UniProtKB/TrEMBL annotation:
InterPro entries: AB_hydrolase_fold, Dienelactn_hydro, FrsA_esterase. Residues 348-361 have a biased composition (Polar residues). Keywords: Hydrolase. This is Alpha/beta hydrolase family protein. Residues 320-361 are annotated as: Disordered. Signal peptide: none annotated. It comes from Novipirellula herctigrandis. The keyword Hydrolase applies. The lineage of its organism: Bacteria, Pseudomonadati, Planctomycetota, Planctomycetia, Pirellulales. GO terms for molecular function: hydrolase activity. It comes from the Bacteria. Residues 127-288 form the Dienelactone hydrolase domain.
Length: 361
């Protein structure tokens, strides 16, 4: 699998139907009827930029790993400051196109921490000849469950909102990478992600002019009313304002700002992010979007099944030569893990079905 949270997600505890109904990110409804202001990332100052660290070889691969924690004080936007750059170990003759990536696994109102397992899933792209900038977003938690106290969830949401929906984290990571890695071609930077990571990729494409395109696997595109009800149940002074800011963080709210080529990959077998919503997002973007359906088993294997499509699209748009040595079936070999089934109620038809734990997107 290219993205690990299909595994992380499946290993969480079983969730009650009540909590699941509140916390699952489902996508339905119409397009926004009123304009939503873009995020002003410039209002948050850049941190100091550390020097380039020494790269370390990643075991069993031909990639080098460079890791840094940007000096952002706790409590300030961008505090989730770990950045990892992955590059081919062989010095390139030409500058490298670059992918900007943050992992899947977060609910709509929060961010996501970065782990080394996340980085491993990007190795197929490094093998293709890409540099990869991996970053995390504010408001992430190691273990967010329905038993997490509402006060703690509200704090995560506030941190995520304060970071301009993770765009401050992305801005800081990209700026540092471009300053320290002259091997990166700044004219060929593409955002990529799955599920909530796909959401972040689309947001980045809408707000950062350094991003020249986007690949989003089953991206979370729109906020469902159940998330608003959940947030309004928290012990906060301004629940309506927090709902507004979380709604502002979904890509559909900024679809008119996306002016770069986008590849949106979806599946009708996806029980987490509706295929129709991904298609609607592509239609909202307009002529710059390419919408592709893949025959996946579920939400979690879409990045694997769609890898060849994404690879060819990226090669076309970046001018990167094809590498026939890439295994398109299992680009990264990870041990299979047993999914954790949960019972989810189909509200429309008043029936239940068994589905992998979708608490984290």
């Amino acid at each position: 699998m290219l993205f690990p949270h299909s595994h992380r997600t499946r290993n969480l505890h079983t969730i009650s139907v009540t909590c699941l109904g509140l916390l699952i990110v489902t996508f339905s409804g119409c397009l926004p009827t009123t304009p939503i202001e873009p995020f002003s990332v410039e209002s948050v100052s850049l941190p100091e930029m550390p020097s380039r660290p020494t790269g370390k070889a990643m075991a069993g691969s031909t990639a080098l790993r460079f890791n840094v924690s940007l000096p952002v004080e706790l409590g300030q936007p961008g505090e989730a400051s770990q950045v990892v750059v992955l590059m081919p170990s062989k010095k390139p003759q030409l500058k490298l196109p670059c992918l900007v990536y943050t992992p899947a696994g977060s609910p709509l109102f929060a961010g996501m921490q970065l782990t080394q397992q996340d980085e491993m899933q990007m190795l197929p792209y490094v093998q293709m000849g890409f540099a990869v900038v991996c970053y995390e977003t504010d408001g992430g938690a190691q273990a967010l469950t329905p038993q997490t106290p509402p006060k703690e969830m509200a704090e995560l949401a506030r941190k995520y909102v304060a970071s301009k929906a993770g765009l401050v984290n992305a801005r800081n990571a990209i700026t540092w990478a471009l300053r320290c890695f002259e091997e990166i071609d700044k004219t060929k930077m593409y955002a990529i992600g799955h599920s909530s990571g796909g959401k972040q990729a689309l947001l980045l494409a809408a707000h950062d002019t350094r991003i020249r395109g986007c690949v989003a696997f089953a991206p979370a595109c729109k906020m469902d009313s159940s998330i608003g009800r959940l947030i309004r149940s928290w012990p906060v002074e301004d629940p309506d304002q927090l709902v507004t800011e979380v709604r502002r963080s979904v890509p559909m709210s900024h679809s008119d700002r996306i002016q770069v080529p986008c590849l949106l990959i979806h599946s009708h077998n996806d029980r987490i992010v509706r295929s129709s919503e991904v298609q609607r997002m592509g239609q909202a973007i307009g002529s710059e979007s390419e919408i592709t359906e893949v025959d996946s088993e579920d939400h979690f294997d879409i990045p694997q099944v769609g890898f060849v499509t994404a690879a060819k699209w990226l090669q076309k748009h970046t001018g990167l030569e094809s590498d026939d040595s890439i295994d398109p079936i299992r680009p990264v070999s990870l041990p299979a893990k047993s999914p954790t089934p949960v019972r989810r109620t189909n509200v429309r038809h008043n029936s239940g079905d068994v589905q992998y734990n979708p608490y984290l997107q």
